[in-house]
Amino acid sequence: MKLNVNYSIALTHILSRKRQTITAALGVTIGMAIYLFMNSLSAGFTKYSRNEIFKSNAHIKIYQDDEMSKPLVTHKDALTVIINPQITNTSKKIINPEALLADVKKQPYITNAIAQVNFDAFYSRGSTQIKGTGSGVDIMDNSAMFNFGEYMVAGSLKALQDNKNGIIIGSGISDKLSLGIDDNITVSSSYGVVKVLKIVGIFSTGSDFNDSSKCYTNIVTAQQFLKEGPDFVSAIYANTPDPDVSQAYVDKLKNITQYTVEDWKTTNADVLAGDSVRGLMMGAISLSILLVAGFGIYNILNMTVSQKINDIAILKAIGFSGKDVIRIFVSEAFIMGLLGTFAGVCTGLLMVKIMSGIYVGPPIGYFPIYFELHIFAGSFLLGLGITICAGFFPARKASKVDPVSIFRR
Amino acid sequence: MQDTVLKTQSVSKYFYDPVKFRVLDDISIQVYKGEFLTLVGKSGSGKSTLLYCLSTMDTDYEGSIEILGKPITGSNIDTLAAIRNENIGFVFQFHYLLPEFTCLKNVMIPALKLGRHSREEIEHKAIEKLEMLGLGEQALKPASKLSGGQQQRVSIARALINDPAIIMCDEPTGNLDSKNSKIVFDIFRQLSSEYGQTIIAVTHDNDIAERSDRTITLEDGKIVA
Fold first, then answer.
1. Do A314 and B96 lie within an 8 Å CB cutoff?
2. Cα(A105)–Cα(B127) distance, rounded to whole angstroms?
3. Same domain for A20 and A112?
4. Locate the MacB-like periplasmic core domain: which residues (chain A) (predicted)?
């Protein structure tokens, strides 16, 4: 291979100072590995908490928000009637939910949509009572949306579909009331409706709150608990291809319905804020480690420039321009950076691999850390970018060396 | 009529530190092809300063300088670097070889930079130059392993590699013993008379000055002889 003379000089410099080169590259390696590891960890945690959110949340929720009664006066010259604003009693109801659901499902950007009837429930056996919430759902659709089938520990989804008086309860409720499959459970609602239902399934999501409060019934059962007719639905949930841009879909859905449309980000703003703060902190810490590695390269090249000031002067005397000198030293930084980032990526990969094999135990399971190509590619470019910047400043200093002042010393 | 390779027209230069001081005063000279010219004078007479102005490395002067009939005064530094690469070879008092490279590579670098010939041709030529200077055996040794006299000869080979119009030397024998001084001087003498190479050397060695073609003596920045 024919090397440009600048690069061959850079290479000779690098090779004649192996120890310095390795020290500089090692700094980058460690910085890179930690940067990658922390970012993968952060991404893993985010992914985990996303999954937790999507266990019980759809990307988009359509519901009727509480409506306040309005004053009757509309004309400015008319007499003002002062009234006491109140929540109107028709509030929670979505009118003609079947049509709305069909409409929503028809949208090209909606992958899946279901209707739910939610109610407050009290589970009791003898004198023991547990408070919780119930959802009336088409259990198969619901399972398709939330992967609910995965969390079933006893019974089956199919059994609920077949049995109008069936119920699927969380494992927490089952433990506390010591009730199992095929036992009967007494459920009452806040509207005073009391029903005895047969337990056809038990689920465990890993979230203690869900497991000890939630139950699923058929839609009709739920409507009866609310003393509502068969056209009552409390919310429609919809999934989209990309949850990250759910806001755009929300805006589109607002055009086809007058009800409140809310995406999961709004509902889970607190969790997401936590995620982004964690991501920011980990990013900042790991970036500063990488920057320190950059300073390592800066230092070593700065030293090299000072040591080699005679060589730089002679190169300039025999016809190398300032740009050539910059190229020589930036290539040195680039070679160190390339070695360092490459080794760093390998180390990071190894760390991620090892960590992802560690079993943390339920409900998390294996450590939530994954190999993500965009993080690795991004870090690789960032690492190279930082080292090139770190090399540029000493290189510029070298390019400004005045050969005459060196020769006349 | 001889060809002029270098010409200066009333070149003056000032040092400003610590006080304004005129180090070169209205220097007008012409250097002809194949000439072995020496610049002599006491320490502080301005002879080295003049050489660095002629070398294009020092651009802070008044007046004008022409190399091979082209004015170089006021050109940008990258252009000047290219001019040095092609037309000027340097030999310094302290050898100034690149210590990590072999002698051969040291000689080759200016030609690789110029990029006029292929690597093989350059290598061939560099070995030829080293052999001419009696260093054929040392070609593949690292520059730092050679004696001072040998290093100086390598730097002469490097100065010759691009067949420059002018070789400029700043005290080329200043750091050498008398035996090596004689060798170096004989090389210059030979280059000038046999190969028609123009040489401008700053020296305070009277032997060398006497045996050169022409001597310019400076005193307080003025040409006195």
1. yes
2. 82
3. no
4. 21-255
* Domain count within chain B: 1
Distance from CA of A297 to the nearest CA of B (A): 21
> How many angstroms separate the CA atoms of B53 and B64, rounded?
10
Of A311, A317, A324, Cβ closest to residue B90: A317
Residue A1 has a pLDDT of 39
Global confidence as pTM: 0.74
Q: Reduce the DSSP state of residue A202 to 3 states and report it.
A: strand
Percent of chain B at pLDDT > 70 equals 99
Task: For residue A239, name the pLDDT band (cuts at 50, 70, 90).
Answer: confident
CA of B55: which chain A residue's CA is closest? A317
- B109: nearest CA partner in chain A: A5
H helix count then E strand count, chain B: 7, 11
Who contacts B11 (Cβ-Cβ below 8 Å, separation ≥6)? B24, B26, B27, B28, B50, B53, B61, B62, B63, B64, B65
- The token pair at B146 is 């050679």
ipTM comes to 0.87
Give the closest residue to A148 by CA, choosing from A214, A26, A25, A55: A55
CB nearest A319 (choices: B48, B82, B92): B82
Instruction: Give A328-351 pLDDT, tens digit per residue.
Output: 888 888 888 898 889 999 999 999
CA–CA gap between residue A106 and residue B85 (Å, rounded): 74
Among B60, B90, B91, the strongest candidate for a mutation testing the A interface, having the largest count of A CBs within 10 A, is: B90
Better-scored residue on pLDDT, A87 or A251: A251
- Residue bearing tokens 């009336």: A136
Please tell me whether residues A176 and A316 are part of one structural domain: no
Distance from CA of B199 to the nearest CA of A (A): 16
Crossing angle between the packed helical segments B77-87 and A322-356, to the nearest 10 degrees: 100
Residue A300 pLDDT > 60 = yes
Q: Provide the mean pLDDT of chain A.
A: 85
- Which residue would you say has higher pLDDT here, A405 or A71? A405
For residue A73, is it within any domain?
A: no
